[in-house]
């Protein structure tokens, strides 16, 4: 005859196995007398839901920490409507994530205080909730790290690989600062790799696509960039400026103190 497992024993064993989320969930389950008459399937579902919620929370924390953004950005807190450039139909399409599963691109443009970063980060949060691993970076910082001579070649290659294989890559401030020939080529290489893998992309830019030429020096390479961002199935969202009182449009980014200031070439 099997000996029943005491709740305290299972809690201890789960903790010892470094499964604190399951241990806490088991403690909550056993403390509720309403669960006494429920079967093992209900208990297992309760424990599994707790585990999945904790896992998603960890992923969200990592996503926003890497992006240097506050973690409250979500589609639920993004005020949409015709006056800001995102109607209900567009929002429903973005929320459904079918575009991400199909490897398509979302281009979000608009002036300062229009909510571009908020919407992009919210899409990253939604993607994680759909089981899509997401990474968000600022274009200038991304290029700086990929080309920094003070960073080892191994580390730069590792970072490139992470960006090229992220299930969803979100690039903030795209085509905002001028990029030299080497930076333009690096951008093209990254987008080539992601296109080859059929992976989705979100970019935000203060400039519309018709103004991107100012940001990339090498003509042939930048045309390749445009083809990979705007070609195929591309969903363009043009936001309009909001009032400063709307908190959803104001972004306080947590900067990385280790990041070196961007070098600006003096005019000859």
Question: Please, could you describe this protein's structure?
Answer:
- With 268 residues, the chain is an alpha/beta fold.
- It has two domains: 7-64, no CATH class; 68-245, Rossmann fold (3-Layer(aba) Sandwich), CATH 3.40.50.300.
- Helix content is 48%, strand content 9%.
- It has helices at 7-16, 20-31, 40-67, 88-96, 98-101, 116-129, 139-147, 153-165, 181-197, 219-230; strands at residues 105-109, 134-138, 168-172, 201-205, 234-238.
- The protein has a five-stranded parallel beta sheet with strand order 2-3-4-1-5, with helices on both faces.
- Helix 9 (181-197) links the parallel strand 3 and strand 4.
- The longest helix is centred in the N-terminal third of the chain and has 28 residues, at 40-67.
- It is globular, with a radius of gyration of 23 Å.
SSE pattern:
HHHHHEHEHHEHEHE
* Largest β-sheet summary: 5 strands, parallel
The strand count comes to: 5
Give the amount of beta strand, in percent. 5-15%
Radius of gyration in whole Å, from Cα? Answer: 23 Å
**Which structural class is indicated by helix and strand composition?**
alpha/beta
Number of domains: 2
Q: Level of helix content? A: 40-55%
Q: What would you say the CATH architecture of the largest domain is?
A: 3-Layer(aba) Sandwich
Provide the low-confidence segments as ranges: 1-5, 245-250, 254-268
> DSSP helix count?
10
Mean pLDDT: 82
Instruction: Give the strand line-up of the largest sheet.
Output: 2-3-4-1-5
CATH superfamily of the largest domain: P-loop containing nucleotide triphosphate hydrolases
Look at the structure and give the CATH class of the largest domain.
Answer: Alpha Beta
**Coarse shape:** globular
Distance between the termini: 88 Å
Q: What is the fold named in CATH at topology level of the largest domain?
A: Rossmann fold
Quaternary state of the chains = single chain
